[in-house]
Amino acid sequence: MPKNKTHSGISKRVKVTGSGKLVHAGSGKRHNLEKKSSRQTRRIDGVKGIAAVDAPRIKRLLGI
User: How do residues 11-34 score in pLDDT, each as one tens digit?
Assistant: First the structure.
């Protein structure tokens, strides 16, 4: 049987945690940061979880 290939696009965007949850980087932190307040940029920093309804589809793309 041939092996399944991981979808390279989703593997760059989504990370699997140790407990098996899927996380991705939040939006709004790439550009135009001067006009956003420091409070706002701190809040949008970091990782966000993938919605439970999307998780099975993304896991299939990752080959999990």
Answer: 999 999 999 999 999 899 999 999
CA distance linking residue 37 with residue 52, whole number of Å: 31
Is CATH 4.10.410.60 the right assignment for the domain spanning 8-62?
Answer: yes
Separation of alpha carbons 52 and 21, rounded Å: 9
**What end-to-end distance do the CA atoms of the chain give, in Å?**
17
Contact 23, 15 (CB under 8 A): yes
| Closest-CA residue to 63 (of 2, 9, 4, 1) | 4
56: CB partners within 8 A, 6+ apart:
none
